[in-house]
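Please fill in the sequence for the structure shown.

STRUCTURE ENCODING:
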């Protein structure tokens, strides 16, 4: 898979160093992966959440942080939409529901 938006992950890793290893592993695995359907992701990332419009949320470091992506299985592209703390994610999604 090709990842778009790596600079967002690099910036996040600088601020939240304890997530750096998880993110580096996720990037390596995702780059090497061929996800042709959601089940391919679920087999490796059982806690991933699947939302409409091919949005997939990954839990980072035991759900301390969240990584929101949008995936095009047809093009083999994973776009980084957002990354942050779990509490920031909750505030963000709460605002979007209002």
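FILLED IN BY: designer on duty
SEQUENCE:
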């Amino acid at each position: 898979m090709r990842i778009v938006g790596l600079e967002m992950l690099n910036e996040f890793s600088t601020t939240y160093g304890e997530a750096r290893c998880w993110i580096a592993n996720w990037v390596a695995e995702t780059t090497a992966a061929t996800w042709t359907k959601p089940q391919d992701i679920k087999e490796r990332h059982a806690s991933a959440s699947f939302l409409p419009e091919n949005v997939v949320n990954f839990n980072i470091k035991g759900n301390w942080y969240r990584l929101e992506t949008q995936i095009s299985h047809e093009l083999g592209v994973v776009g980084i939409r957002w990354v942050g703390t779990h509490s920031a994610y909750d505030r963000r999604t709460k605002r979007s529901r209002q």
